[in-house]
Amino acid sequence: MTAITNHLPTAELQALDAAHHMHPFTANGELAEKGARVITRANGVTLTDSEGNQILDAMAGLWCVNIGYGRAELADVAARQMRELPYYNTFFQTTHAPVIALAAKIAELAPDGLNHVFFAGSGSEANDTNIRLVRHYWAEKGQPSKSIIISRKNAYHGSSVGSGSLGGMSAMHEQGGMPIPDIHHLNQPNWWAEAGDMSEEAFGLARAQELEEAILELGEDRVAAFIAEPVQGAGGVIVPPHTYWPEIQRICDKYSILLIADEVICGFGRTGNWFGSQTMGICPDIMTIAKGLSSGYAPIGGSIVSDEIAAVIGAGEFNHGYTYSGHPVAAAVALENLRILEEEGVLTHVREVAAPYLKEKWESLLDHPLVGEAKIVGMMGSIALTPNKATRAAFASETGTVGYICRERCFANNLVMRHVGDRMIISPPLIITPDEIDTLIARARQSLDECYELLQQKDLLHSA
Ligand code: PXG
């Protein structure tokens, strides 16, 4: 068998990594100086690194390892499927059992009327599919001018040219010629950072009404769809005010705009239901899925599509697909993951045990001098760091300076808690126990204390 070089000393692994491996979303030169932390194995919610440190992974990898690490059943299913049929495509009038079973299972779990799945290898690919799908849908309906997709600033929908254009990350748009034409971005419903004196309710409504204003300005005959994450993830776990989503739904219905819910993070139990759309009370026409679909054990994504859209698209040929659409090994792994989520009552554990306990403990961090707001939906949470809670002030330092210091303390304290700007975020495996939540919170508090001390030393506790 090919050697995997875990047995090499850490410094040698780091040197090889620096010499040959380009990390995503990373200043690779800077990392090469420092050396990447080498993760060697994982079990449950715990990562082990090459120095033997045990790290609590409060991000479930990249928001994906919903069932936790170390489930041998998925490895067994993958090995069995590789022996039986490692690959076949579904392009030219063929199919196979794993993709059939997975599509049928997803249709069973998805809300009524969403019964068709177009598979992809990732969330980015699935959102690229969605761009082509909604434009082709309106063209087939005799309205080819309906091509604009409305999205939001600070949304994350992937990193390909199409999905990166849908996303509203300005740092991404600055590199490589994005966004593509006919994508329009609205403001996000981030009450903490952007509401000024408005109440949460009024602000949520105002931000939703930007959608109606945009449709009227651009023309109803030009707008194909609105895409959003039920709860923004990579943007900082921004939980919209409760007035936001009902108004968005009303506007989409009124103007016949397709609603695409990007469920890549929110799907498969993250918010306590199968889909974030159910938690937020919305009825999308398309849902983007990936991540928790396979708990990250195999790369797979897709678009769950309404009966109406599938019928219109299915009347002709949709000239689109990926080599790995419905990959049999990934499909078999995803199916086994869904079996575990269902049969082991993981969503019930979230709703009845983990989420209520995490919420109580997470919100207890509000007594810390640095923590301004604590938001949480199911198993995704954020805290806003601030030098002044009363005014909801940002720090005078460049955005992200303080968040990075806090993240570094977390990493040093064997906790993976990320920062987005000066917000700290978590999204732990759904199977986390109350004891492990206690450890998570203790390490978070310790890291916040150390961060606070460092900010005092560096004289960084000033408001912008
Ligand atoms: N939609 C959403 C809502 C996502 O969060 C994607 C689409 C794209 O999925 P793929 O499988 O193509 O990566 C994502 C991915 C971060 C981070 O820093 C978040 C994601 C990916 C990488 C980093 O939080 N989300």
Defining key terms:
464 residues; alpha/beta; Aspartate Aminotransferase, domain 2; seven-stranded mixed beta sheet; four-stranded mixed beta sheet; 15 strands; 42% helix
What can you see in these coordinates?
Helices cover 42% and strands 16% of the residues. Helix 5 runs parallel beside helix 14, helix 10 runs parallel beside helix 11 and helix 15 runs parallel beside helix 17. It is built from 17 helices and 15 strands. The mean pLDDT is 97. The chain is α/β, with parallel strands linked by helices and 464 residues long. It folds into two domains: 145 residues, Aspartate Aminotransferase, domain 1; 271 residues, Type I PLP-dependent aspartate aminotransferase-like (Major domain) (Aspartate Aminotransferase, domain 2), CATH 3.40.640. Bound molecules: 3-[O-phosphonopyridoxyl]--amino-benzoic acid. 3-[O-phosphonopyridoxyl]--amino-benzoic acid binds next to helix 6.
Q: Concise description?
A:
42% of the residues lie in helices and 16% in strands. The protein is α/β, with parallel strands linked by helices and 464 residues long.
Label the CATH architecture of the largest domain.
3-Layer(aba) Sandwich
**Strand-residue fraction?**
15-25%
- CATH class of the largest domain equals Alpha Beta
**CA(first)-CA(last) distance:** 57 Å
What Rg do the Cα atoms give? 22 Å
- Describe the largest sheet: 7 strands, mixed
* Fraction of helical residues: 40-55%
The tally of structural domains comes to 2
Which regions contain 5 or more consecutive residues with pLDDT less than 50?
Answer: none
Chain-averaged pLDDT: 97
> In CATH terms, what is the fold-level topology of the largest domain?
Aspartate Aminotransferase, domain 2
Tally of helical runs: 17
Category by helix and strand content: alpha/beta
The H-level CATH homologous superfamily of the largest domain, spelled out, is Type I PLP-dependent aspartate aminotransferase-like (Major domain)
Q: In what order do the strands lie side by side in the largest sheet?
A: 4-10-9-8-7-5-6
Number of strands: 15
Bound molecules: 3-[O-phosphonopyridoxyl]--amino-benzoic acid
